[in-house]
């Protein structure tokens, strides 16, 4: 049933025949439905044939890889696929007859597939002649781990057992998983037959009068064995964010709406049963809410990823702090406590990745179920707490989480101080990830000549993260009267800023600015040449001065990095650029959104608007479900639509959250809960049009912001005692005025 190599089976004395190296399945034409931790992956005709990534999944385990429908012993002819939501899809096909006197199809086949549930098959006779149909559904599975599926491997078929408890069903069991397909709600019970490679439900005589219909329903259940204790589980129905109403640019409206729908489907909840959060054990608050977070992406990363989950929560802060709180607590409970080289765990270090079991990814990469090999998740954890504090996270949570942030900061300081250059650098272990930032592919770091640069490396954006974490935590500690600790952190951050300025800038004889920031420095502060998008994530961290921000902005706006559809991960002007590589020239949705945020924060509004405009145009071509990454080809007046990277996750957490990140950047929101001030420094509406948003959340209050065509900003619903601040700092003075009132929600019609 499979067109990919099988996983190794039992050994024998006979030599194994040679086989081609397995390749990662492509996803560009795969229909994905997700209701975390479950998802389905289907070809566009809906038929699951045991190939590629086809199947029903739950908790990283493939429950079913084959579900093949035949009518009169042949497959229906597909005519279309219709998404019905992030978790559901309808596949429509027809069953035709050679002897019909009409070319119109008379038997319509509709399959509705739902992640985490199963599917229905509806046959409708829309003709004038009665039909008698032979219907068969074949089901099979290998119960493979998602890591093996990602490697392009198909496991040996597991033989099913036939059960009849509650109706006809097939059940599969292996040492690593179990699954069950149950035919329910059928007009009549099917015949069942099973063999070593699968089972078949058969309805030999389905009578369909003119205008008649026939419906069967299948449930698909199962999961990994053994059930990992404390592993994340499905979240409760209530989402931990507000639902905004956006009026303005239609593209932005679509991107926010689709992104939030996808994020709803990507939610997971902490199942650890841990203690520590106010409100009682088990990760539940006094209001009955659970500690929710966003899984990284579907299909490959539908689990807790420190970096990805943190960024998703940071991007959604304009809609409330509850997601940030759940993400912080989920990671805090799993913060490193011991030195364990096999997991790259260390006291204070924040988790990188959580799986139900150890996973083998090929090329010697073998990761334990709980893996800490990330250099950036730890400083990002600290900054998420600081940001959530500024957005109004309740003091009880801030104070309870503060010790975890201090331990995380201690790991950052200790790791950097142990480095010969005083930088936050990563030293991977054999068998672990080679590169330990968001650009984590094996060839993610190349120099201007296209040569791969191997670790240990200090990445530029990681130094920015560390600086932002230190200065932010110092401010938080100072608000708690911890003045000595705050001063110590500020001094450490100042030294890191000076080392950064000395080590990372590369003088350039050509280009939009005389210098750019190196993607990384190796040993002896040897900078890695070649402009890359990483420097865009420095904006807003505070590690750059005003002149540095201007130079970085110029590079981000240049055609070398701005493809016209978003920010390229690597300059198009250097050897090794590949528009469809993972990190060598493609456009990452979240990377572009973070750059837009940083450009707005540093007052570079024209450059921000140019990047945002390209991203929003790309979103239209992807029907607003942004892929993890997409092609970095240059946009022209006659360019076709951009192409998704063929193995990109979609939906993907921080890509789905990017719409809210861009929305917050264009509103110019800079909250400061300790001082009860809301900074507003939006770009002038002449760049991307007027904007009105209701349903924002600030310190627990519902907030509305309107920016009219003249640039005047109106705020409604400020929390008691808060004020609006439109002056001072970079980016100030870009509107004609701002005010606060208590009137109705502001709104404008959509931009044409």
In CATH, the topology of the largest domain is named Glycosyltransferase
What does the main sheet amount to?
Answer: 8 strands, antiparallel
Low-pLDDT segments = 1-5, 8-14, 278-287, 728-752
Name the strands of the widest sheet in spatial order. 7-8-9-10-17-14-13-12
Radius of gyration: 27 Å
Whole-number total of structural domains? 3
Chain-averaged pLDDT: 91
Taken from the alpha-carbon principal axes, the silhouette is: globular
Strand content: 15-25%
Compute the number of helices. 13
CATH class of the largest domain: Mainly Alpha
Find the count of extended strands (DSSP E, 2+ residues).
Answer: 38
Q: What structural class results from the helix and strand content? A: alpha+beta
The CATH level-2 architecture of the largest domain is identified as Alpha/alpha barrel
Helical percentage: 10-25%
Distance between the termini: 50 Å
Topology of helices and strands:
Blueprint lengths: L30 E5 L2 E5 L5 E2 L5 E4 L2 E4 L1 E6 L5 E9 L2 E8 L11 E8 L3 E8 L5 E10 L5 H5 L10 E3 L5 E6 L2 E8 L6 E5 L2 E11 L4 E12 L8 E2 L10 E3 L2 H16 L1 E3 L22 E3 L11 H10 L6 H11 L20 E2 L4 E4 L2 E3 L2 E2 L5 H14 L4 H24 L39 E2 H20 L3 H21 L1 E3 L7 E3 L2 E2 L24 H12 L29 E2 H13 L3 H17 L7 E2 L22 H15 L1 E4 L4 E4 L4 H4 L2 E8 L2 E7 L5 E4 L6 E3 L12 E4 L11
Helix pairs in contact: 2-11, 2-12, 3-4, 3-5, 3-12, 4-5, 5-6, 5-7, 6-7, 7-8, 9-11, 10-11, 10-12
